[in-house]
Protein 1
Amino acid sequence: METQHREKVVVVFNPAKVDEDELRELVTAQAPASARVEWVETTPEDSGYAQATAAAQSGASLVLAAGGDGTVRLVASALTGTGVALGVIPAGTGNLLARNLDLPLSLSDSVRRAVHGCDSTIDVCEARLHWADRSNDVMRFVVMAGVGADAQMIEHTDENLKRRVGPLAYIPGVLRALGGGNNVTVTFTFDGQRVAKKRLHTLIIGNCGDVYSNVPLLPHAVPDDGKLDLVAIAPRGIFGWLRIGGDIVVNTLVRLWNRDPRNVDNQMRVPRPPNALTYDKGERVTIEFDSPEVFEVDGDPVGRVRAAEIEIMPGALVVRV
């Protein structure tokens, strides 16, 4: 391994998601003998941001995030712009970043890749959120964020059920979320130029495209192209949903045939019927809602927002792949 991989390694782990004894055994077996490995638990009050910030400030060259999407997002947020590498050890239900970067999902394989893989850079999305109570906050995410069915599905999914049955726990939330019509009224501006006001069902903005392995909601999204991708979903009745479902199935098959979105643009199916699916791409998007909407980032609902400004931070995060 390179010299920079032989220094201080910090493992930020969620004790509710991983078996600490097994994780310690695997990391100890894979880490170079010269590496100094430190262990830090997440807490209900801080799911990884403070721990990863302290690790970066103390000279760590690699921080392993072992937990669900929330832990990975917060560790990634803290390491953004530091040059410290993130190693992903996925232990949640969605494992969105690991799936989109084609990282191993098993504990042993993910530890091996996180320690011995190569470093690559990806973009990070930064969102300034305007809450329903008129306060503001800034959050970063690495996969996707949105409102509508996406956020409602997550909000209505039972955490205990997720632990018992895994991804199947999302099915009741999906059915409940899809039951509504185009109830979200939003005005969005892309790169300060293109302005549209739409009534829609779901709005997704992201840096990665797959909501599950090889199932692309943002079929042209590339994690290191310096661009945000957006899809506005506004079906017209049952036939609109059927057409959207058909397009997603076709895009999934294309992705399975050729996994790199940069090589499949001409084969991906895009908006049909008119206005049911609207795709766009840019560096900054501003969205304003007629009434506060539940907003999710990387699989976690974070509250109701009135508006958000989201911009891309090109190549801001080093990830061990």
Note: Confidence is low (pLDDT under 50) at residues 1-5, 267-273.
Protein 2
Amino acid sequence: MIVYLNGSFLEKDRAKVSVFDRGFLYGDGVFETLRVYSGRAFRLRAHLERLKNGLKTLGIPCPDLRELETIIQSVIEKNSLKDAYLRLTVTRGLCKRGPIPKDCGPPTVFCFAEDFNGLPENLYLEGVKIGLSRRPQWRLPEESHVKGVSFLPNIIDRMSTTEGEFDLLYLTPEGFVSETTVCNIFFIKDNTLYTPSLECAPLAGITRETVMEIGRKKGLQTIEGRFKLSDLKEAEEVFLTNTLVEVLPVRQFQDVTFEIGPWTRKIMDGYRELVKQETSD
């Protein structure tokens, strides 16, 4: 595997990051996960714009976006990848010791990619089960565009899933639906598509935006808002979204079951059609 690190393309075993890098010591940085289809990263510019906004919030200098585009495409080509998972990470790099960043050098920029062909198809045919996290949503609404390297709460919660659960749902401290540990969540009722607004502090997902775009084009009224658990449980259809899972139906939340209905299937198909349109030669 050829990776990119701080200006060089090199074999993965030769890629070394300082143990004093703030990404390692404090999880101080942001990352983007991208899907590569037919050798092209899907919605690349949208991912890079979110990366830029996240770095701005953290006060970390952002590399030139056109340069990042070139790096990403080079990583794809140097590894002869067609369908892949790609991760781009930018940390604050080396700074004076202590939690408050001082006297920092240039940020650390790391990119790698590997083969990925999606989740098992049976999950899309049968749907998944999700549970409820005991932890409230920890992100602030104004941080919805920050996809931070520090992922520990999400990891702890994913590790606490019971047998058969794919993911856990976060509620805001006020009790509104937010997101799951790694996905945005949507539900459908009465020909209307609902998803938590950014004031409920979900990640401002690129796939989330894409799905709302598809829903509108297919004639679905689309509403972003604040929804209680009772709203979710009364839904006709529910699905999760992120870059890797794309559009993943939910068949059960706690003791409530849902149909993998026609709207979910239309959005799934619409998403895959859009991927083909934007990544085909």
Note: Helices lie at 22-26, 44-58, 65-78, 121-126, 152-159, 206-217, 229-233, 262-279.
Protein 3
Amino acid sequence: MEIPEYFKDKIVQYFGSKGEEWLKELPDILDRCREKWSLTDIVVAEDLSFNFVCFAQAARYGEVVLKVAISSAELYTEMKALSLYNGHNICKHYDFDSKLAAMLLERVVPGKNLTSLEDNKEQLMVAADLISNFPIGIDNNELFPTYQDWLGRAFDRARKEKIVGAKLLSLMDIAEEIFDDINQQSASQVLLHGDLHHWNILQDREGDWKAIDPKGVMGVACMESARFIDNHLNVVSAREDIDSLNLCNYLDEMVSVFASKFDKSKIIIANCLFVLCVLSTCWRFEEANPKEDQLKESIDKCEFILKYIKNL
């Protein structure tokens, strides 16, 4: 099985010497996975991120996805989330090997993602139905990080390492205040996917939509809407017929849909979006060689959302 060069470059760029060592071990890990789960017809997935993913046939499970990670910690969190969701609006989790940092999952077939729907409003309504029914309560909240953990780590690092400018630091201060208000209005913390965007929502043979690749994070239920709205803003803004006024109107429509689905006010949904966008911008600054134009776009989007909130 050939490991793509772009994937190797990405791993080394991000993980350094640790990544180099893992890449040396990866062929042996894959051979052991093949033997452990009796895998055949293995095909490497396209557009790999930081996990090595391939499709295969398993003697016991049929069509599967094999996911191998450099860090077992994040994969373990994903595995725990998948186990608790137990196929509820999400792909099934079949098996996990902590020593190999490898996981075997149901393959959603044909697996067309949400962007396969040409109409943006149809994408929105499908996502809203799925996302509003996704969060679940669990008995042990300590199994997963919280949104508070995510914000705390990212914001502390940004302030200590001084990797962001004054504009984003000001937005971070506002996001912290807004996030505290969101939490005060809802004492219940539930298990969230944490990364429900267009490419993590796939359609199966029956026409149902299922999620893949959960991060696994605890938070208030309506925070689940933020990642999709953020990504949908990018999808819609890429259209040639969209100007700033139309984009604002479209944002208002999205916020209204999710406010109705979660039985929350529009300002709470918009606040969730703003917090997530500031957090995502901090994460973007942590990337190896972040692009200046993308950083500026992220900050501009945070300010655009904040202006929208002030006008509600």
Note: The first helix runs from residue 5 to 15.
